[in-house]
Amino acid sequence: MKKIFIMNLGTTSFKFKLYHVDGENMDVRASGEIESVGAEMSRWQYASADGHSQSGACPIPDHGAGFTLFLDILQRDGLLTGLQDLNAVGYKAVHGGSLSGTRLVDDELIAEMERVTPLAPAHNPIYLSAMKSIRRDYPELTQVARFETSFHATIPDCRTTYGVPYAWREEFGIRKYGFHGSSHEYIARTMKKLQPDARRVITCHLGGSSSICAILDGKSIATTMGATLQSGLFNNNRVGDFEPFCLPMLMEKLNCSMEDVLAILSKQSGLLGLSGVSNDLRLVLEAAEGGNAQAQLAVDTLIDNILGYIGMYIAYLGGLDALVFTGGIGLNSDVVRSRVCEKLAYLGLALDSDANNGRTDGCISTADSKVSVWRLKTDEESIVAQNVCSMLQ
Ligand code: AMP
Fold first, then answer.
1. Is the pLDDT of residue 74 over 90?
2. Cα–Cα distance, 256 to 72 (Å, whole number)
3. Atom 15 (ligand 1): residue with closest C-alpha?
4. Residue 10 Cβ contacting ligand 1 at under 6 Å
5. How is the beta sheet containing 42-48 ordered, strand by strand?
6. What is the distance in A from the centroid of ligand 1 to the CA of 216?
7. Helix (H, G, I), strand (E, B) or coil at 344
8. In whole angstroms, what is the distance from residue 269 CA to residue 254 CA?
9. Which of 8, 148, 259, 376 could form a disulfide linkage to 179, CB 3.0–4.6 angstroms apart?
10. Measuring CA to CA, how many Å separate 155 from each of 178, 224, 315, 324?
11. What's the CA gap between 58 and 23, in Å, rounded?
12. DSSP label at 349?
């Protein structure tokens, strides 16, 4: 039996799960999270599978300190006898550039993550800082990274290549990588169990950050994000696909730097920028219902964007057997699911409206629908834990 500590890190957030893995059996024994890492006061909470829970507030200057906090709690709670009892820590790491899959955190990995940090500036520095501080404080501990790009390694070259000078791809790694790999992989594995004959699956991970993936025989063959997490679908705060030749004009009109324009495109665009209401789809839908035309346009643009990618992916897959919705929007918005699905009626796809309006995970299409439609909760950490264990073996 292996004990694996999986970390999912955000700029100021820290989430962990402690897994006990025994062959195919995976048990979450404890989980916890910290809010406002790096602030004067950070809030944390912890819960074990045995029903022990704790919470508190204290200064937690960085993610490495967050790890130390939970390591200590896990020992006091009797789930770890000491550091030597932990087989590995695993990261849901984001951009590994030329390195993908599941890899030991070593000098080569750190150097490559640093090289591609300009492609994931909001994510790679956080992971690098945690990896380095845990390496310094616990040098005997095995650290493993599972990159979010990994599941997309099977996408054909013609679909990961931009129409730019060939040397850019070779020398600088300017190509599409794709992200949210753990979520799409989890759905692919789950669909294999739920509907083994579904060879052609499209997964819509729609949430604060969104992407769609085309899966053929369990393998990714296309996804919406590219060299960075900024591209692809129109997101809550992000523009998604955009015309790079507008940048010089925007810099001139707004009298600002390229960084400023990029910050607007990644933080104040998408649903928020277009609607002028919120980055939360619930509020944008409410405003649209109340007659706000900008909010209505934002919702229509989001739906149209999702539909366009699904259409493209049906062409790549040569048809569709199953369509899956996950993520905060995919799971909770019956409006998004029904508006997307009504445009796919030409496929013989029919939603069961009661199931779509309900709250239960599972199949939400009618029994005679030619394409099954699913509402499934994703579990990214379990995929990281499984891959870390396979690598250790
Ligand atoms: P995630 O990042 O996957 O946790 O998703 C968070 C997003 O889900 C939020 O930005 C909300 O806009 C969206 N969301 C949550 N519940 C609903 C809902 N009932 N209807 C529409 N959007 C929702």
1. yes
2. 47
3. 328
4. no
5. 53-58, 42-48, 25-35, 14-22, 2-9, 88-93, 143-147, 102-104
6. 28
7. coil
8. 15
9. 148
10. 9, 11, 15, 19
11. 38
12. -
Decide whether any atom of ligand 1 lies within 6 Å of the 328 Cβ: yes
The count of residues in the chain is: 393
Does the pLDDT at position 214 exceed 90?
yes
Q: What pLDDT, on a 0 to 100 scale, did the predictor assign at position 22?
A: 87
**Closest Cα to atom 16 of ligand 1:** 332
- pLDDT of 333 over the 90 cut: yes
**Cβ of residue 277 lying under 6 Å from some atom of ligand 1:** no
Q: What is the pTM of this model?
A: 0.96
Measured in Å, residue 329 CA sits from the centre of ligand 1 at 4
- The DSSP 8-state label assigned to residue 172 in this structure reads I
> Strand locations in the chain, DSSP E?
2-9, 14-22, 25-35, 42-48, 53-58, 88-93, 102-104, 143-147, 200-205, 211-216, 219-223, 322-326, 362-363, 372-375
Which atom of ligand 1 has the smallest separation from the CA of 209?
2
Contact 332 CB / ligand 1 (< 6 Å): yes
Contact between residue 32 and residue 9 where contact means Cβ atoms under 8 Å apart: no
Q: Is 282 in the pocket of ligand 1 (CB under 6 A)?
A: yes
* Contact between 204 and 326 (Cβ < 8 Å): yes
- pLDDT tens by residue, 22-71: 888 899 999 999 999 999 999 999 999 999 999 999 999 999 999 999 99
Position 210, amino acid: S
SS3 190: helix
284-268-247 Cα angle (round to 5)? 130
Of the candidates 157, 152, 168, the one whose C-alpha atom is nearest the C-alpha of residue 229 is 152
Determine the residue of 233, 281, 284 to mutate for testing ligand 1's pocket, defined as the one with the most ligand atoms within 8 A of the Cβ atom.
281
Whether residue 281 has its Cβ less than 6 Å from ligand 1: yes
What is the CA(334)–ligand 1 centre distance, in A?
11
